[in-house]
Design a protein that fits this description.
InterPro entries: Pep_tRNA_hydro_II_dom_sf, PTH2. It comes from Streptomyces cremeus. It is an enzyme of class 3 (hydrolase). The protein is of the alpha+beta class and 248 residues long. The chain has one domain (3-136, 146-236). It has 8 helices and 10 strands. The strands form 2 sheets. Strands 1, 2, 3, 4, 5 and 6 form a 6-stranded mixed beta sheet that branches. The chain has a 4-stranded mixed beta sheet with strand order 8-7-10-9, with helices on both faces. A hairpin with a 4-residue loop joins strand 4 (104-107) and strand 5. Helix 2 runs parallel beside helix 6 (164-181). It is globular.
Length: 248
């Protein structure tokens, strides 16, 4: 699984097409996500992607991340710079050690993802730093089917072949861009419902329509796997609707 970086901007500026020099010059942090993946019974790929996206939303909305909460300062620092996320895997004793660190574990159908407060790029806790970034991929034994009506959908590009870890981080980016764009009442409603969402791969026709809709688009910085500027995920939240392209 691989580290990921998006050029999305913080809530005060939703321009996802450029990254200011100030943001690049700011201290760089990363949001660690650890997926529980045992050799004998790994989760389905879509389940892992959806759980990772919900984990990002959960920490964004957590009281410890807001106001004067214990994670609020580092969450602000992280969002003031590039929005980096790294997905690593753990099993057995590794997972138990990671679970003992401050963070939040989010569960899906079978997937488990623990999200931690942001850490400096070169300041990972030793329990997380030694976890593998690559070496395990995931697939869907069965077609996940159409998403339930009325729930947010994070559409992944049909033109890109991403590892499970890359796709998990990109889904998290998409969820975060949707969160930033929502009105407070819509955020509260989504949180109260437990952050229902689906992750699906768009058809080429759907992707063309979505890219012209004005919905939040994740553009990858290109440090791993795919070319800089690649559009990876579009966040289709019912409360956002379709807007003229370029407006957020």
């Amino acid at each position: 699984m691989s580290s990921n970086d998006t050029t999305g901007a913080p809530p005060a500026s939703a321009d996802v097409q450029s990254v200011s020099a100030e943001r690049d010059a700011a201290p760089q942090f990363v949001l660690p996500l650890v997926a529980h993946i045992e050799k004998t019974d790994p989760p389905a790929r879509t389940d892992a992607l959806e759980t990772a996206a919900r984990a990002v939303l959960t920490i964004l909305a957590d009281e410890r991340s807001l106001g004067e909460g214990e994670w609020a300062g580092v969450m602000r620092d992280w969002q003031d710079a590039r929005i980096r996320k790294v997905v690593r895997r753990a099993r057995g004793a590794e997972w138990r050690k990671a679970s003992a660190l401050p963070g939040i574990t989010v569960t899906g159908k079978a997937a488990e993802v623990r999200v931690f407060p942001p850490v400096p790029l070169d300041g990972w806790p030793k329990e997380l730093a030694k976890l593998q970034v690559s070496g395990t991929d995931l697939d869907d034994p069965q077609d996940p089917g159409a998403p339930d009506p009325g729930i947010p959908v994070l559409w992944t590009s049909p033109a890109l072949d991403m590892s499970a870890g890359k796709a998990m981080a990109q889904a998290g980016h998409g969820a975060q861009l949707a969160w930033w764009d929502l009105a407070d009442a819509d955020r509260a409603a989504w949180r109260a419902a437990g952050f229902p969402l689906a992750v699906r791969t768009a058809t080429p026709e759907q992707w063309r329509r979505l890219t012209a809709s004005g919905l939040p688009v994740v553009r990858d910085a290109g440090f791993t796997e795919i070319a800089p500027g690649s559009e990876t995920v579009i966040a289709d939240h019912p409360a956002l609707g379709s807007r003229p392209a370029g407006q957020h």
